[in-house]
Amino acid sequence: MISFFSAIPIVVLILGLYFIHRACTPPKELKLIPTVPIYKFAWAVLFNKGQHEIQRVISESDPEKFGLVKIFLFSGWSVLITNIEYARVFFSENAQAPDGHPIKRFFGKGISFANGEDRIRQRKMATPAFNKSLSPEMIGECTNELITLLNKWNDVPLDIFTLMKRITVQTLGKLAFSYDMKALDSLEEEPYFIKTYEKVTELIQNPIYMILKFTYKLPLKVNLELSQVIEEFDRLIYKVIEQRKLDIAKEKKSEDHKDLLANMLENIGNENFEHNVKDLRDELTAIFSAGHNTFALSAVFYNLAKYPKIQKKAREEAFKVLGDSSKIPNSENVKDLKYIKAIVKESLRLYPAVVMLPFRKVLKPVRFNQDVVIPERTSLSLNIWQVHKNSDLWSDEFKPERFMNQDDKENWIPFSSGHRNCIGQNFSIMEQIVITAMILLNFELSLPPNGQKFDKMPLKSSFYTLNPKDINIIFSKLKTIVEI
Ligand code: HEM
After folding, report:
1. Which atom belonging to ligand 1 lies closest to the Cα atom of 122?
2. How far apart are the first and last CA of the chain?
3. Where does this protein hold heme (predicted)?
4. Ligand 1 proximal residues by C-beta, below 6 Å
5. Domains in the chain, ordered, with CATH?
6. Where on the phi/psi map is residue 422: left (φ > 0), alpha (ψ -120 to 50), or beta?
7. Sequence ranges of the binding site
8. Is 399 exposed, middle or buried (0-12, 13-18, 19+ CB in 10 A)?
9. Beta strand pairing call for 360-362 and 379-382
């Protein structure tokens, strides 16, 4: 008789053989598509070799030539689109968000994973509310809080990701939820909201889910821990909702100044509140997660610190447009900060914050070329990094000037495109321009002496979004007056 414990290695062996068999036999329809070297890929992800290495492994299957690669992921075969021509397949209605993804456990029915009517309803509600709350002045006020904080840390190397997380969370909290996240009060303590959210995202991106998707359903310690932190995050988000509900009952804000959450609460109405509060939680979670994209600003500051000539030119523009260091840009000023906008766009090209779009399933078969037709239900993603690095379209250097003459190039897709494109795109670009300009008016940015040795921005091995690896930047109070 086999005991329970001696059966475990047998079960592991059978599962292992099953997965090796599946990994070695891709569906016949995908046979012609080049394959990403599976062991090298798993090694780069599991041993945290960094995003440059992950993408280098993908490049081994010559993504530029074919425009598609196939990869064994999430216990099955998927296709990654790597050129702009095929990207429209991904942007079409034929590509739908799948069910049963580990990430859904946290995001629930939020906009990023909803399909059909649900999605249309959520977008209709969020987009106008979002555009209404676009306010460079509010972003400027939060940036002033950041400047006050940085004055206390003059000439000290600071972790740029942590810093940018604080300013983006603070801005989003005030603009979208009228909630003070207390993210810029001090650098000593990490605000509890951020800490809890970070823990959820860390656990949810566990590489084991990527290789063996079904493990997210097992009664494992990691899954139990994930449930507990999600519960804690929910407690905090329900508190934000409750607080806003109480405040709205007291205040009389004009239509134009209603934030996103106020609009959502109004849409639900008091009678249906209890019934819909879970949906509201899901929507806010999606917006909170997408809305404080910390990486993009980190990359802007890294590039400014790395290229002093570009930094100088950007500062000159900021002084020319804004006049003095205490000025908060208004909407007209933002339009005139053209070189800073080009820096923001070039940073997003070289380092697309969302590097790989969440997988979708195609509803109907898709013909890519004469020989390749992928069957319905094939899992598909778009690798923005590869599209942005295509050597036929872009030179491999940081060159903001390329965005000065021609505006949105169609090969530039950091915010995706089509029916699921980013609703926060305008807000995000404006936010980055305002924060960058105000910081440049007050500080000189530099990399610590050992930082200069990096040829490329050091990145962690995260899968969907980029994450910098221990990048410190020094903010030194500007001493000289800039001649305009
Ligand atoms: C540099 C900053 C940002 C980048 C690079 C970015 C990028 C993206 C991308 C690539 C998508 C498509 C995801 C998909 O296909 O599933 C997306 C969707 C979305 N983004 Fe952003 N985003 C940024 C900032 C923001 C901000 C500031 C907000 C809101 C405050 C926001 C809200 C959203 C929402 C709600 C969606 C889901 C749209 C839908 O599924 O219909 N994003 N974003």
Report:
1. 41
2. 86
3. 422
4. 111-112, 123, 172, 286-287, 290-291, 293, 296, 353-354, 357-358, 414-416, 420, 422-424, 427-428
5. 11-477 (1.10.630.10)
6. beta
7. 422
8. middle
9. antiparallel
